[in-house]
Amino acid sequence: MSPNPDRTGVPGADAILRRQRARESAARTYARSFPIVPVRASGMTIEGADGRRYLDCLSGAGSLALGHNHPVVDEAVRRTLDRGVPLHVLDLATPEKDDFTDALFATLPGRFRDRARVHFCGPAGTDAVEAALKLMETATGRRGLLAFTGAYHGMTAGALAVTGNVAVKAPLPATGAEVTRLPYPYAYRCPFGVGGDRSAEIAATYTERLLDDPAGGVVPSAAMIMEIVQGEGGAVPAPDGWVREMRRITAEREIPLIVDEVQTGVGRTGAFWAVEHSGVEPDAIVMSKAIGGGLPLAVIVYRDEYDGWLPGAHTGTFRGNTLAMAAGAATLRYVAREGLSERAAAIGARMMSRLDGLRAALPAIGDVRGRGLMIGVELVDPEGPTDSCGARPAAPRTAAAVRAACLRRGLIVELGGRYDATLRLLPPLTITDEEVEAVLDRLADAVAEVSVAPRLAGRPA
Ligand SMILES: Cc1ncc(COP(=O)(O)O)c(C=O)c1O
């Protein structure tokens, strides 16, 4: 540790950042957008080594349903440590794992729960996505995969193959996976140039006809994988009717439906699992992030008829993290007991309504969308031409400038979506009314500073 205290009294904060830049990989991401050294955190607030406090609207990329260091999570971790239980157990049975499984199954929609199996994966969403794809490839004996434009499923080979983002795939050799890319109903930037409800209808018709076209180029499908609200894709919610159509289309063709709830799960969208909004019963759900209460944990839950794996078919060393299971069980129960899904729905609706008002006042905001506390604010060039649906060109430089202006105001907001032009709000489900106001005030101020002030001064935004 550097012997030189920075202005905060924390030893070497500036030096820590300098050493990070010098020693960590060029692939580091959040550290570039947020050059802060967190030293303490509680609820929605992070304190940096520079002594500044930040409202955290990123929440560990959606992992912290209860915010930082929630007493319920801290207590579960402490209790587990105090009992002296093994912290690493491979995939052996333990009381903590048994209890986590009870807590998890209690959250599942009824009919799905009755026939559910769980597989503990390596502790990242991407590994659980790999597991789900392999499970269905094994069960069906097929190799084709159906995935969507704008999708994000992770960074390992199979998950990356079903991810939409071209920039991260382009430098790599082909993965070998045979993926058919289907249109996701993104109302603001409709893939068919029509927008509105018609967009989702056409997307469903196109999918159905493509799958039935013997010359459509689609090999028999092992699975369709979808997000109910695309997270990294820019907080794009799918209409419930379209989700039901995807279920009908896959069921009629005996194609398993995998719902990736890594980001949408545990109350975030206003239902415990986002798929519940549509009433659809999937064949498998991929879960990670919030299920570990902020500690690393990932599982897939699926209908038992698909459980045709051989022993060790998807193994891994770190599949038995006792602390994560204890923290996760406490979090799942707290979210259910305190009705935090309903709270997310109500607060999210309030935030979106105020953001909609802001959109009317600030033309740099092209679209406000989302579900529950998964909200996207897409920034556009207000002077650019509109497309056939009225959308203006994405404004990634404005978005990056707004992110920086938010940080200067003590607000952490990350970007996502096409061209990284969407501000993504992922506050903890425990956000208070005062924090809601503070987040929206700072955000409004930041957008106004970046998009209005330069124009008044005669400079382009
Ligand atoms: C929907 C979705 N699936 C999978 C992943 C990958 O999870 P991880 O980053 O833990 O590998 C993410 C991460 O953001 C995600 O949002």
Automatic annotation (TrEMBL):
Its cofactor is pyridoxal 5'-phosphate. One of its GO terms (molecular function) is pyridoxal phosphate binding. This is Diaminobutyrate--2-oxoglutarate transaminase. InterPro entries: Aminotrans_3, Aminotrans_3_PPA_site, Dat, PyrdxlP-dep_Trfase, PyrdxlP-dep_Trfase_major, PyrdxlP-dep_Trfase_small. It holds the Pfam family Aminotran_3. It comes from Microbispora oryzae. It is an enzyme of class 2 (transferase). Its EC number is 2.6.1.76. Pathway: Amine and polyamine biosynthesis; ectoine biosynthesis; L-ectoine from L-aspartate 4-semialdehyde: step 1/3. Keywords: Aminotransferase, Pyridoxal phosphate, Transferase. Belongs to the class-III pyridoxal-phosphate-dependent aminotransferase family.
